[in-house]
Amino acid sequence: MTIPLVVGVDGSEASLEAVDWAAGEAARHGVPLHLLHAAAPDDEGTEVIRAASERAGNAAPGVRLTSEVRHGDAAAALVGTAHDAFALVLGSRGLGDLTGLLLGSVGLAVAARADCPVVVVRGAAEHRGSRFGSVVVGVEDGEGSRTAVDFAFREAHVRRCRLVAVHAWTVPVGSPLPPGLSGFALQALQRPPAQVLAEALHDPAERYQGVPVTSEAVEGSARRALLRAAAGADLLVVGARRRQGHIGLQLGLVNHAVLHHAPCPIAVVPRT
């Protein structure tokens, strides 16, 4: 049986926008869509599920749709589905979130704990509606970005759009620069950014040969580089690091920054 794309719904407008996005995503990938509502003990949740089901049916009539109401903690309910989910999709804000939070507490908890990709649907209609024809992925040195890059290539493939791979780097604090040697030149003496990008993209590019790819090596803040690239993207993809000896994921500073400030939907992909 094909595992479903799961979307959390709570009746908020943000969660209904997430349903719209998830319905389109399920249609692109040919997977079922499962609506999950975590309700209070005295709430049957039928009206929330009804409205979300109607929204999903209008957005993608051909997608197989199921729904479920669980009573209890919303983050725990969503994380509990992650083992058998294609991905988890959430709105950027929920009914219970405080006004001052940029990303809802449930969304942040799920992104940190789920062991499948988590997509937080952010941004204006043009970003949510795949109008830019671009998927952006953050690339780190080493094997850490492999699953995120694979996910991003697959997304660009099903969307028939281009992939922009961004690798940001800085000279380590305290590294003395010889006279006349720039930061870029020092980095090139160690491990050139172009090599980092080429190695990360080589294998998935062979599998998805129809995807046009642009590589960007940026000297400076990864947070700024990714947010700048995401301004013209339909989806931003980043990796999440496993914590040693703990269940779940450790969201670093870059993850937190893009989850709170990305101008488009953002996918947090667990590293394997």
Can you characterise this structure?
- With 272 residues, this protein is α/β, with parallel strands linked by helices.
- It has 2 domains: 117 residues, Rossmann fold (3-Layer(aba) Sandwich), CATH 3.40.50.620; 144 residues, 3-Layer(aba) Sandwich (Rossmann fold).
- Helix content is 39%, strand content 23%.
- Strands 1, 2, 3, 4, 5, 6, 7, 8, 9, 10 and 11 form an 11-stranded mixed beta sheet that branches.
- β6, α6 and β7 form a beta-alpha-beta unit.
- It starts with a strand and ends with a strand.
- 44% of the residues are buried.
* CATH architectural type of the largest domain: 3-Layer(aba) Sandwich
Q: Tell me about the biggest sheet? A: 11 strands, mixed
Strand content: 15-25%
Treating each run of at least 4 consecutive H or I residues as one helix, how many helices? 10
Map the helices and strands.
Elements: E1 5-8, H1 13-29, E2 33-39, H2 46-59, E3 65-71, H3 74-80, E4 87-91, H4 105-113, E5 118-121, H5 125-128, E6 134-138, H6 146-159, E7 162-169, H7 183-190, H8 193-207, E8 213-219, H9 222-230, E9 235-242, E10 249-250, H10 253-261, E11 266-270
Parallel strand pairs: 1-2, 1-4, 2-3, 4-5, 6-7, 6-9, 7-8, 9-11
Antiparallel strand pairs: 5-11, 9-10
Helix pairs in contact: 1-2, 3-4, 6-8, 9-10
